[in-house]
Amino acid sequence: MTVRKQQIESTLKRLISHALQARISDPRIAGLVSITRIDLSPDHAQARVFVSVMPQQHERRTIAGLRSGAGHIASLVRPQMHMRRFPRLVFELDDSLKKQAEVMQAIREGLDLEGPAPGSTPGNTPGNTPENDTEIAPGNVPGNVPDTPANPPGSAAGDARSDEAGDGPADETNP
């Protein structure tokens, strides 16, 4: 995928989302309408706009409203795109979010059937044991030398940005 194609898809997604939120008042477009992705044809003549609609009861009616209003939506977005040829918008229902939610629900149900892991408590998840809890004071990132009177800011030991590669101004004391 070319950078130009990605830019056009991203801009179309943003502008169409804004047009749907602020400038479309079609009563058929109901519920939460989200543009999940846009697939632009190689010749930029057509843009498939994948839409997710929640709740599910509004899907068919909303997609019908979007398809019939595609020309109007394009006329709202076209002036902001600065393209010689604007792609034809084709709205399609994207059920990938629903499938993802179903998979996550199945995973949760499977984990609930298994029960908790031996030796675990609700607040004690793997990797979150008291032995692993270490507290680092602000500014004291491991590997940095804290600023102290012995290592003032700007010194080689106290400044993390010191010129270690020797690319900075030459030091007159070094031969």
List the helices and strands and how they pair.
Elements: H1 3-22, E1 32-40, E2 46-54, H2 59-68, H3 70-81, E3 88-93, H4 96-114
Parallel strand pairs: 2-3
Antiparallel strand pairs: 1-2
Describe what is shown at a glance.
This protein has 175 residues and is an alpha+beta fold. It contains 4 helices and 3 strands; from the N terminus they run αββααβα.
Features:
GMP Synthetase, Chain A, domain 3; alpha+beta; 175 residues; 4 helices; 3 strands
* Low-confidence runs of at least 5 consecutive residues: 158-166
Mean pLDDT: 77
Please report the first level of CATH classification, the CATH class of the domain at 3-99. Alpha Beta
Order of helices and strands: HEEHHEH
Number of strands: 3
Strand order of the largest sheet: 1-2-3
- Please estimate the helix content: 25-40%
Strand content: 5-15%
Could you walk me through the main structural features you see in this protein, from its secondary elements to its overall organization?
The protein is built from 4 helices and 3 strands, in the order αββααβα. It has a domain at 3-99: GMP Synthetase, Chain A, domain 3 (2-Layer Sandwich), CATH 3.30.300.20. Strand 1 (32-40) and strand 2 form a beta hairpin. Helices cover 35% and strands 14% of the residues. The protein has 175 residues and is an alpha+beta fold.
